[in-house]
């Protein structure tokens, strides 16, 4: 037999030829990218503490989703997060093991399937088949997912809510409306503070409605009439976007207008229109990130010949304020801001808060927040409001605002600061019906009454007699 020719070896120290990379499937070829995108959002929220509304645009771009596919992925992810508590109760009834023993990634898939079956216009067989396929791609539990979702599909959502018997009224409200029990209790107490505890179910229901996109025309830079949509009920600057993306609106792209809840627009208006004696030249937003209120306040100040300064403690959030087009942005701790006492005429304290008034926009926040978070926030809120009163001149005004109706963060903070300082409470009149706050003269907006986030506002004035505020 002829000898085989030996394989030729490369010369010593000669460069080796790099292995040819294996091609990977383009994202657009991934099967069912909309459901994969929704799952990615749930995983990011669970593992990275991401906010769904912030991570969604990146995930939609990753999977090259637009139009109806983007809308499907958005509703699937956001709706699943909103209804998580309800779905968990139903899934627990369909499992042969405690919910805590189900792998987190499997539970993500089960929740997505439950939302399609119980709350979306997806045919049952399609919802189950597609979710089982998703489980095959991401877990080793497709059999479990198939079996459980078939049990889920045996009843409509209303039937499930009827058969899941819970005697305690607050526990039942928590399950039916998918809120942690402590949040239900806190919101009930907030409603009692304005004499309307009977509205609890309406408020919890409103929390689970996807909010409409609201645009704001920044005065002196754009006109409301150039924004597409129906005028807002209470803000003279707002419209509810009829359809499409805000980025398709010229004024939004050019930063002459922005996306802003009507309640937040009213916060800026409440400060700008507050009665003032004497000069009106220098305004401050002391907790300005991410910048929407600061941008509107700056536009209002410009029209009146005043100047707005935006202060934000965190550098990356200060960058977000600047990205709104705000010109004067300072990075500093609001509780010890780098400004001389008595500098400003008008000042906004949009305080860090629990955000329990904005659960429509951040559905996952209800599952993250704990009662201890509020206990930690209240001292900070009091320090910020007290510091703000030092920074305004005698006769200057400070608007304290939170996107939370919780008593500790609203009435409790304001009453504490009024007791410990010489500040005086000034009534706010925005002309918004049924908006009386827990302290006479304050304002409390509600999702179920006004279609806004549950914004609280209190206006405090430093007395004209320049007495110490401590």
From TrEMBL:
It holds the Pfam family NusB. S-adenosyl-L-methionine binds at residues 287-293, 312, 333, 350. SUPFAM superfamilies: NusB-like, S-adenosyl-L-methionine-dependent methyltransferases. Residues 1-10 have a biased composition (Basic residues). Residues 1-26 are annotated as: Disordered. Keywords: Methyltransferase, RNA-binding, S-adenosyl-L-methionine, Transferase. Belongs to the class I-like SAM-binding methyltransferase superfamily. RsmB/NOP family. This is rRNA cytosine-C5-methyltransferase. It comes from Nocardioides baekrokdamisoli.
């Amino acid at each position: 037999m002829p000898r085989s020719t030996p394989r030729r070896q490369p010369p010593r120290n000669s460069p080796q030829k790099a292995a040819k990379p294996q091609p990977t499937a383009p994202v657009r070829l991934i099967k069912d990218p909309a459901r994969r995108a929704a799952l990615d959002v749930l995983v990011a929220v669970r593992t990275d503490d991401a906010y769904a509304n912030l991570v969604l645009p990146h995930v939609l771009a990753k999977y090259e989703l637009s139009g109806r596919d983007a809308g499907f992925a958005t509703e699937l992810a956001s709706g699943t997060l909103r209804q998580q508590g309800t779905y968990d109760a139903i899934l627990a009834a369909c499992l042969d093991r405690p919910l805590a023993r189900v792998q987190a990634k499997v539970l993500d898939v089960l929740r997505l399937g439950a939302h399609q079956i119980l709350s979306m216009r997806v045919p049952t067989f399609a919802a189950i088949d597609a979710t089982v396929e998703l489980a095959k791609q991401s877990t080793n539990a497709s059999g479990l997912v198939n079996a459980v979702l078939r049990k889920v599909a045996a009843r409509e959502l209303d039937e499930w809510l009827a058969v899941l018997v819970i005697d305690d009224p607050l526990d039942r409200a928590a399950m039916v409306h998918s809120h942690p029990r402590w949040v239900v209790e806190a919101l009930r107490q907030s409603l009692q503070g304005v004499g309307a505890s009977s509205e609890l179910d309406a408020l919890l229901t409103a929390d689970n409605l996807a909010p409409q996109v609201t645009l704001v025309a920044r005065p002196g830079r754009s006109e409301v009439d150039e924004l597409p949509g129906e005028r807002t009920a209470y803000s003279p600057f707002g419209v509810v976007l009829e359809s499409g993306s805000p980025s398709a609106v010229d004024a939004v792209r050019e930063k002459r207008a922005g996306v802003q809840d009507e309640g937040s627009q009213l916060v800026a208006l409440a400060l700008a229109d507050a009665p003032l004696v004497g000069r009106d030249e220098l305004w401050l937003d002391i907790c300005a990130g991410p910048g929407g209120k600061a941008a509107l306040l700056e536009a209002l100040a410009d029209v009146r010949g005043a100047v707005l300064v935006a202060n934000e403690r965190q550098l990356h959030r200060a960058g977000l304020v600047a990205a709104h087009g705000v010109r004067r942005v300072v990075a500093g701790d609001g509780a010890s801001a780098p400004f001389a006492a008595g500098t400003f005429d008008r000042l906004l304290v949009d305080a860090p808060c629990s955000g329990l008034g904005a659960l429509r926009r951040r559905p996952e926040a209800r599952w993250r927040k704990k009662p201890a978070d509020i206990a930690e926030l209240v001292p900070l809120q009091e320090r910020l409001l007290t510091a703000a009163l030092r920074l305004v001149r005698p006769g200057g005004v400070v608007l304290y605002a939170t996107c939370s109706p919780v008593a500790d963060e609203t009435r409790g903070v304001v009453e504490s600061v009024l007791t410990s300082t010489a500040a005086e409470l000034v009534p706010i009149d925005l002309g918004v019906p049924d908006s009386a706050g827990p302290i006479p003269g304050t304002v409390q907006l509600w999702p179920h009454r006004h279609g806004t986030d549950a914004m609280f506002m209190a206006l405090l004035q430093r007395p004209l007699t320049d007495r110490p505020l401590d």
